[in-house]
Design goal:
Layout (H helix, E strand, L loop, with lengths): L5 E4 L5 H12 L3 E5 L4 H15 L3 E4 L6 H15 L4 E4 L14 H29 L2 E6 L12 H20 L5 E8 L5 H14 L3 H9 L11 H11 L11 E4 L7
Parallel strand pairs: 1-2, 1-4, 2-3, 4-5, 5-6, 6-7
Helix pairs in contact: 1-8, 3-4, 4-5, 6-7
């Protein structure tokens, strides 16, 4: 990865996605941001990143439940940068409830955003990568791609699906200098997890501190939340030439959770 590449990161206006966008920008790569938020704050974020890192930073507000908007996100990336070299599928939402109480609309939304959107972005990005003879696809899965937890039926299902999609895509493009891998974090300190703490406390009838100690970090032997900066640096490595033979890998980054 010796020259500037064009990277599109879904769900990159906050949390893990923003951490990965900043890490790639710091290496000199041009960035297409995507995600939700106040337009003024997003513009401030975009212009601030461009100024801080001296790269081109654009924003596209594609809704990850709408295939036509996802197609336009990839097409716009190709138009403004001339290529789509790095694709990071990070957009995700969560909802916690027992299966029999799980709202159907929440199931549909989580599957659409957390899993099906990955197919659409890859579908449209691969032709750019094949023409260039180089590409890196990173899907943000989860430790829940490898382990299940109660009350998270849609999320766990979506993340298991991402693992299968990652392996399939990797095999299809293995001879074309394109890699496809999945990062599987444990609990990362993000706004999503902060909200999940509140939801889990409500569902289980325990305090938020008990959720952190006895539910979330109980699963992680290191007893530490993962930082978004760590995931950003991992993504940079997977996009490097040193990682060209890492593909189809479902890569835990979860403090030893799945070692048990």
């Amino acid at each position: 990865m010796s020259q500037s590449k064009a990277a599109v990161i879904t769900g990159s206006t906050s949390g893990i996605g923003l951490g990965m966008a900043r890490a790639l920008a710091a290496k000199g790569h041009n960035i297409m941001l995507n995600g939700l938020g106040d337009p003024g704050e997003i513009e401030q974020l975009r212009s601030g990143m461009a100024s801080e890192f001296g790269v081109a930073v654009h924003y596209h507000g594609a809704d990850m439940t709408r295939p036509d908007e996802i197609a336009d996100l990839i097409a716009e990336t190709g138009r403004v940068f001339g290529s789509v070299d790095i694709l990071i599928n990070n957009a995700g939402i969560q909802y916690v409830a027992p299966v029999e109480e799980f709202p159907v609309e929440q199931w549909d939304r989580i599957i659409a955003i957390n899993m099906t959107s990955n197919f659409h972005t890859i579908h449209h990005a691969l032709p750019y990568m094949k023409r260039a003879g180089w590409g890196r696809i990173i899907n943000l899965a989860s430790a829940h791609a490898l382990r299940a937890s109660p009350f998270k039926a849609a999320y766990v299902t979506a993340k298991h699906g991402i693992a299968g999609l990652t392996k399939t895509v990797a095999l299809e493009v293995a001879e074309q200098n394109i890699t496809c891998n999945a990062i599987c974090p444990g609990y990362v300190w993000t706004p999503l997890v902060e909200n999940q703490i509140v939801d889990t406390a409500r569902t289980r009838g325990i305090s938020e501190e008990e959720v952190k100690r006895d539910v979330m970090l109980l699963a992680q032997p290191t007893k530490q939340f993962i930082r978004v900066e760590e995931i950003g640096e991992f993504a940079v490595f997977l996009c490097s030439d040193a990682a060209k033979n890492i593909t189809g890998a479902i890569l835990p980054m979860e403090g030893g959770w799945t070692a048990k």
